[in-house]
Design goal:
The protein is α/β, with parallel strands linked by helices and 363 residues long. Helices cover 36% and strands 15% of the residues.
Length: 363
């Protein structure tokens, strides 16, 4: 009988790609319950599965709860109530640790407490990289099984060849700034390095809200400086709303290098998309990005950044290396498909093991 998984969330691309593209899996995942707020149909946040009473009301509809992310605004006490409900109904809990530091939180204390509740109760713990697994064991005493991130870009785009561009394009995407992003020092360093990168130019993208004075998300130091740099032709500035998936893939493939402007972080779906599309990533050494996939690291130093421990070179040196060596690290589509099947099988095994363990304890 196929186990039914209550995934938090189910609709995110990462979770969708835990099943193979041909649907050959013994697992069925519940769809995300529609949030109570007035949100777009595709939105899964905030996740109702973590609301008080949801497990008690729906325990007969699933066999395993698997928490990935989305618990940003759920208090540790509320998470403890969810765990208690799962125990009452003998429903095992699987946790995949994507973020050891929440990219939306300025302070790490709440996320640490949330992870503490989940990891203490989890029947199985997964994560994406050996470095994150080592940190989980050190901080919480839990052994985490390492399962790599599946591809992000889907066919046919995954297999389409890149179109050769002109020059050497470095991209920084400011998006709608999260707490973990600090793009302006990165942009300033790239601008200072451009004279030593023949044929290179810097493209900076920012969402409309960040660049609109008076908007609640307007960034008062970033917006005028970007406009000043653009007026001096030192950056190619693009202001727009969120990209669709196709627009995002077009954007990433227009770049030779994508620089991640993170002051702290753990793993990155953006890195996976770049790897799928053949765009070189230059990432800070504050997370486990180099464990996750091929990239060039730079030292995430500075007053606002979590300094990495790997002794990575300054951003300038990483940029010079990317321009000199032109690394070609595009994922092989056939390997990505095989990997996705392997990832699916691992999850089937994990679910079967935790269900068997619960059954043995209940016998």
């Amino acid at each position: 009988m196929s186990p039914v998984i209550a995934s938090v969330p189910a609709g995110h691309v990462y979770v969708r790609h835990l099943s193979p593209p041909d649907g050959d899996t013994t697992v069925r995942r519940l769809p995300d319950p529609r949030p109570r707020a007035d949100v777009p149909d595709a939105q899964w946040w905030p996740p109702r599965m973590l609301e008080p009473g949801w497990v008690d009301e729906h325990a007969g509809e699933f066999d395993v709860m698997h928490v990935h992310f989305g618990f940003d605004a759920v208090s540790p006490d509320e998470l403890a109530d969810v765990v208690a409900s799962l125990r009452r109904h003998r429903r095992p809990l699987v946790v995949t640790v994507h973020d050891l530091r929440n990219p939306h939180h300025h302070d790490r204390a709440l996320h640490d407490a949330q992870l503490g509740v989940l990891l203490d109760a989890a029947d199985a713990v997964l994560t994406l990289t050996p470095g994150a697994a080592a940190e989980i064991e050190l901080r919480w005493g839990r052994a985490a099984r390492v399962v790599p991130h599946p591809h992000v870009v889907e066919e046919p785009r995954l297999s389409q060849p890149r179109v050769a561009g002109s020059g050497f394009v470095i991209g920084v995407h400011a998006k709608s700034l999260r707490a973990g992003m600090d793009p302006l020092p990165v942009i300033e360093e790239i601008v200072a390095t451009l004279p030593d990168l023949p044929g290179a130019r810097l493209r900076v993208d920012a969402h409309t809200d960040v660049m609109t004075p008076g908007h609640p998300r307007h960034v008062t130091d970033l917006e005028p400086r970007l406009r000043e740099l653009a007026a001096r032709d030192e950056v190619d500035l693009h202001v727009h709303d969120y990209f669709s998936d196709d627009e995002l893939w077009d954007y990433l493939q227009s770049l030779d290098v994508s620089v991640l402007p993170y002051r702290f972080g753990t793993h990155s779906g953006w890195l996976e998309a770049c790897h799928d599309l053949g765009t070189t990533v230059v990432a800070p050494d504050c997370g486990h990005y180099a464990d996750q996939g091929p990239c060039l690291l730079y030292g995430a130093s500075g007053a606002t950044r979590s300094t990495g421990e790997g002794g990575a070179p300054p951003l300038r040196e990483a940029l010079l290396a990317s321009h000199r060596d032109r690394p070609s690290w595009r994922a092989d589509p056939a390997q990505r498909r095989r990997e996705r099947h392997e990832i699916s099988r691992v999850h089937e095994q994990v679910y079967a093991a935790v269900l068997a363990d619960v059954a043995s304890r209940s016998a």
